[in-house]
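Comment thread on ticket #2218

A.B. wrote:
> Attaching the input chain for the structure job we discussed in standup.
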Amino acid sequence: MKKIIVLLLALAMVMSLAACGASEKPAETEAPKAEAPAATEAPAAEAVTIKVAAIETAYGSQVWADVAAAFEAETGIKVELTTDKNLEDVLTGPMQNGEYPDVVHLATGRPAGLTEQLVKANALHPLTNTLSLTIPGESVKVADKIAGGFTDNNIVAPYGDGVTYMAPMFYSPCGLFYNAKLFEDKGWEVPTTWDEMWALGDVAAAEGIALFTYPTAGYYDAFMFALMNAIGGPEFFNAITTYEEGAWDSENGKTLLSILDKLADYTHPSTPAQANNQDFTKNQQMPMNGSALFMPNGTWITGEMADYAATLDNFAWGMTAVPAAGTAPYSFCWFEQAWIPAGAEHIAEAEQFVAFLYSDKAAEIFASAGAMQPILGIADMLEGENVMFYSIYDNGAKAAMGGFAAFGEIPGVDVSGTFFAPIDSLVAGTITIEDYAELVKTNSALMAAAKLG
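C.D. wrote:
> Ran it. Output below, let me know if you need it in another format.
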């Protein structure tokens, strides 16, 4: 089915319609004045309606309805909005038939991989013009409003040609979350190096507390990206994520494997069995109730676990960066993406909508639900725990950003199944770190050969 979708999407890109707009009225031939009819006012052009599809997440769907209404009021362009928790299921059928939304908010890294399928099919519209647009209702251009680094990483510019194809959306500093009250009560210091981390793990183990847990293995993406940078900086991160030959056999690669192996021994033994869509919240409860100390996650965790937090007497969220292992502590900056399909009918109007997503008006609406746009001045809209979370880069941590380079279709091989999903087996003891290393090196070579761009 994936192959069929890719072929259809690629075909749709070639046959994509030009952007719709009101056509100019042909000039009329001048008639003799004596016979000229009375002048009549030309009928107003019918307002364009664009189709916007957005994944419904913890931020809810009302924010999208509110932003769409604000956009309509600002531009006069109508919006037909679709939101769904399983947006891929809603979009796949129509896309197979060549029917595309004009704007889609659907991030990479989801199990269905629909966004990645369009990347592989070269079926996204470049946002070069969008970045140069003046934001509707403001006097600033989109490119000047977006914070640095968000439009030139290998997620939004997947082909290595410097062209942005995806608009960076809601961002969240990711890190290791913990119970700040527990650390205060125990008099424990939060580790800033891995030597300190292992030492704390031994102290905690003596009290029946695991050092580490994770919701699902998928959460190892942001954690591992930060860890790569903490070991060897952006150079090592880029070597791994662009499938550079020998990267895993380098000294930095050996350090990465060593930490992953040792951390598996310090992980709560119940974690793999609960690391699924039904039971992952049980793992998320561990650092809250004192079963484990640290858990990789993003700032959305506070809302997701608010009801459980309300049942605890001695709990307060804390968040720290991934400890240094050769360079500095790093916090991965996770963000979502929006994009315009190459097959969209109303390209020009879709670009206006994407530009509006970076307006102060839209940012305030999103922020009211806890969704932070990567725009300059966003800190002025923060309050409560978010002030602590979003100030992590002001407290010594460096920001890691980006992901694995895009590659063509490889039967049976994908990023998650190669680098992250096997962590469950590593923790459970059903594979060794040597097995893991062999898998990532073998598949990295295949990905390098199929790399796009």
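A.B. wrote:
> Thanks. Noting for the ticket: Residues 174-331+405-449 form a domain with the D-Maltodextrin-Binding Protein; domain 2 fold (CATH 3.40.190.10).
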